[in-house]
Amino acid sequence: MSYAMNDNRNNIKYSFKNDYSEGAHPSILNSLIESNLEQTPGYGYDKYCENAKNLLIKKLNNESVDIHFVPGGTQANLIVISSILRPFESVIATGSGHINVHETGAIEATGHKVCAGKLRNDGKLRTTDIEEILKEHTDEHMVKPKMVYISNSTEVGTIYTKEELKNIYDFCKKNDLYLFLDGARLGSALCSKENDLTLEDLSKYTDVFYIGGTKNGALIGEAIIINNPQLKKDFRYNIKQRGALLAKGKILGIQFVELFKENLFFDLARHSNVMASQLNSGLRNLGIEFLNNSTTNQIFPIISNELLEEIQNLYDITYWSPMGDDKCCIRLCTSWATKESAVEEFIEDVKLFLCK
Questions:
Q1: Summary mean pLDDT of the chain
Q2: pTM score, two decimals?
Q3: What is the C-alpha to C-alpha distance for residues 225 and 203, in angstroms, rounded to an integer?
Q4: Strand ranges, E, within 262-353
Q5: What SS3 class is residue 15?
């Protein structure tokens, strides 16, 4: 997988490369402008961060949580993991997990090994995967697995059901492990047509998780939710040490107020899912096969290398993996701002090529 930009920028009609190409929803920008000259305390001690926390507490139906705002997902991951684990402890993730593949060794740079499980087309971690890793780490000559990391939605657009999450959480409790859920694309997961989880469930069945704003309409920002009281002490110290405690913390608070005061967060996620669903249906109608049955804003068509070349001349997309001699898997990612006309044009361009 590559994040490199397409060289033929002048020919590109539209980008389906990621869900953070656009800036931010207009209501967020307007609120930032309106509060721009207002003087507030720094480092998250402002009224906007406080209001955002109160809004989230109501959504979670859990007044005992601690909430911290940080700029981005990688920072959220490395801060949470490095705050919780002792120097000799490790974190378990699926083989395709973001911390294992796409964070440039950020977790390892904090001194903690990522113990990777199997690579699966559905991108999920099973309790059997966790158990297998635990059995491999038997004594003090190896790192000691202490945390399990999962993402919802996963790196390949799939989601965990309530039963799956609860099973993993119960397994973690029985084996003295912490469960951490990466929610960079949590909005898309919660708004999937197959989802049966709520924010309240996440507060019950994880020790810590975060709500991603960066990939769902915010300029920047993730909200870390600490459910387990044992993990709360001195957390802000680690945020500061890792460079994520913003002096202008109100910038994050304002955005989460806008996202949650009238459920804009969910409206934007639903739009991105609908756009992906339309792409999915249109391509399937043309006979295109898929890596899996993602119902979120990331879909993974399997196409010929010849079609890939044609698509890359017109659109920004992500090459995901080879699929044999003459085929490959690509990722198409929609966002809160994706235009329906762009989706329709993409499908039509693929149809024109297939009909040649």
A1: 96
A2: 0.96
A3: 8
A4: 289-290, 298-299, 301-304, 315-316, 318-322, 327-333
A5: strand
